Amino acid sequence: MFEEVGTTTEGDLIINLGPQHPATHGVLHLVITLNGEIIKKVEPHLGYIHRSIEKMTESLSYRQFIYVTSRMDYLSAHINNHACALCVEKALQLEVPQRAQYIRVIMDELTRIASHELWWGAMAMDLGAFTPFFHAFREREKINEIMEETCGARLTMNYMVPGGVMVDLHPDFQKKVKAFIQQYKAKIHEYDELVTGNIIFQNRMKGIGYLSAQDAVSYGCTGPVARGSGVASDIRKIAPYDVYDKVEFDEVLQTEGDSFARYMIRIQEMHQSIKIIEQLIDVIPDGNFQAKTKAVIKLPKGEFYQRVETARGELGVYIVSEGAAQPYRIKYRSPGFSNLSALDHMVRGHKIGDLIAAMGTLDLVIPDIDR
Amino acid sequence: MTKEELKIQILTILPTVSFEETGEWLQVLVAAEDWKLFAQQLHASAELQFDYLFCLTCVDWKTHLTMVYHLTSTTYRHNIVIKIKLDSINPFIETVSDIWRTAEFHEREVFEMFGVNFLHHPDLRKLILPDDWIGYPLRKNYEDPINMIKL
Q1: Cβ separation B150–A345 shorter than 8 A
Q2: Among A2-11, A37-46, A316-325, where is mean pLDDT lowest?
Q3: What is the β-pairing status of strands B64-72 and B52-60?
Q4: Quick check: is A40 in a domain?
């Protein structure tokens, strides 16, 4: 059935969405083939923010290359840094101090909440609701303040290094995080009242952009997109890193596979992240925040792969080392790239307005796709 | 499944493969002409069920190219790495985008960055680079005096 819809015939309208369109959240260019209002084909054109990070990394040292990754998925900067640090540690078989492991996991989860909050605000804005954006940014601002105090930056943190973290926590860190949790818990019901329970919103989301579990796996979808279709894909559960095996949390799954399911996954994931932070924030062990490493890091000859769960799904870092101080080849398997490839399949046969709703629930970050 | 069990299963599908012992996961070296059929069987086999291709890339070794496929099973959670050696002057290999749909985009990226030709790919065009771009940027011998900054 879909093959039939996919071919262009006379009378079809081809329109360009982007590269400068507010709903694409960046410089994504979609060429859409329409028949009336019905989508026949969506073809993404990438590369408007391609910086060739993989090529660039081939001439950077193992300390420098981590900072470039903050510029890939800028909303999950900590988690990108974490992936690279873990990959280098795996190659060096380096033991990371407990304190650093706790700090990293707390930072990851704070990042996840901040990322989902921005997504929530932007998602509602794509559908025409402006108020939720301010609600989301009110909580997100608190996280940014916490980050700024400890890491010195609000967006591209560059805080994690091979062997631990760059500097110790700010003395106010625990106090501020607890205050944030309190604020979050007091205000989170507003999110559901404003958007989740809204009947207009639900009508626009339910049944839109259906993705079956089988297709989600085949297209390589991960993160909330796969979990919305009922595919358990959380790397924190499959291959736990740092202290994720010591904390209790649920992998949220929905089986509907539509836009609303993916929406609900992210809302519930924020609650789970709060649960993880609560378990760790009072028991951060004392000690070193960084293991001792040589001034020039050289990885042994071989190939190393590290998977982590970012706010968007599975990020893979694949390092091929020839024993030098720079990687011979590096590949970032970014979650957005694979998630985007399923978009065409998801929206065929829908109306063009539904494309925005479906695309919003993919939570695309364009620099992450282009790299 | 452990590495040893995986080895036995894989050898029953294709006896001509060889294994590399290094690394976290089992590495399987396959000849390019066997790849398509082997891939179909890896996906279809009830014992293996490699249904999820989580990374597809290429490495330029100057004398030759190596395609690297990372596969996992969402049912059994075992992983393998497939490596296929290709000629660097005229590299070509069968597409696997009909088995794992995610390969469609990944193969387009490898096509433009390394110049690997994927036979029977449904839509083999440049994805990230502009259409008129000359050369394969991720090859080791690529030179670009304007856009590349050498340290």
Answers
A1: no
A2: A2-11
A3: antiparallel
A4: no
Chain B, nearest residue to A321 by Cα: B59
Chain A residues near residue B70 by CB distance under 8 angstroms: 305, 316, 318, 333
- The mean pLDDT value for A167-183 works out to 88
Let me know if residue A15 belongs to a domain: no
Residue B139 dihedral angles phi and psi, to the nearest 5°: -70, 150
Give per-residue pLDDT as tens, A185-219: 888 888 888 888 888 888 888 888 888 988 899 99
Query: Interface pTM (ipTM) of the complex?
Result: 0.88
pLDDT single digits (tens) B35-81: 888 888 888 888 888 889 888 999 988 899 999 999 998 888 888 89
Number of domains in chain A: 1
- CB–CB contact A338 B102 (8 Å): yes
What pLDDT does residue A167 have?
A: 87
CA distance A323 to A309: 28
Domain ranges, residue A197: 51-370
Q: Specify the DSSP element, H or E, that contains B12.
A: helix B3-13
Confidence band for A318, pLDDT divided at 50, 70 and 90:
very high
For tokens 């609560």, name the residue. A278
* CATH no., domain B3-91: 3.30.460.80
CATH number at residue A345: 1.10.645.10
Residue A16 lies in a domain: no
Is A34 contained in some domain?
no
A215 interface with B at CB cutoff 8 Å? yes
- Across the interface, whether the CB atoms of B55 and A329 are under 8 A apart is answered no
pLDDT band at A3 (very low <50, low <70, confident <90, very high): very low
Residue A162: which of A315, A317, A54, A273 has the closest Cα? A317
pLDDT at residue B32 tops 70: yes
Return residues 116-145 of B near A (CB < 8 Å). Answer: 127-130, 137-138
**How is chain B split into domains, by residue range?**
3-91
Which residue in chain A is spatially nearest to B112 when comparing CA positions? A47
> Coil, strand, or helix at residue B150?
coil
- β partners of residue A43: A31
The reported pLDDT for the residue numbered A8 is 64
Shortest Cα distance from A329 to chain B (angstroms)? Answer: 7
Residues in B touching A307 (Cβ below 8 Å): 54
Interface mutation target, options B25, B29, B52, chain A, most CBs of A under 10 Å: B52
How far is it, in rounded angstroms, from Cα A333 to Cα A76? 14
